[in-house]
Amino acid sequence: MATKLDLANLARAEALKTWHGAVMGLKPNIQPIVSLFPKWTLKEANGLWCAAFVYYCCVQAGYEIPARPQECSCSLAGCGAWDEWAQKDNRIGWRSAACAPLPGDIVLYDKVFENKQHDHIGIVLEDRGNSILAAEGNLGNVSGVVERPKDKHIRGYISLPDHFVY
Known about the structure:
Blueprint: H1 4-15, H2 31-34, H3 42-45, H4 50-61, H5 79-88, E1 93-96, E2 106-109, E3 120-127, E4 131-136, E5 144-149, E6 154-159
């Protein structure tokens, strides 16, 4: 059974494994992430797997969460589904961007790569005051650890309770 600290530690390690889609002529290595969503192909996931990476990390850390909670209109392979789930399931914590995040919180972003809501997601590793350090999938189709300012792009934080089982 997972804790938020387990999730943060695992997410850092997974992000640094350099998961990647089709980049620099390399064959994608994200099949273990994509395979958690049976209706999704590797080709469909290429360049769109940030939320799937977060789900993969949650599952690997020991959280027991279905790929598509009943509160969601789509699977957790989509950033919007995470927001939808957190807003509808009162067992999940949802905090505004004004709150201080904790390691293991899931951070939802708006308008990071595209001019739309819910366009990116990651896992908070550290709160650095004016910025956060986050483990993210699909940073230019590669996983990594990135520092992001606490600004208008942060939509909010999702807090899975320690030992959460859906």
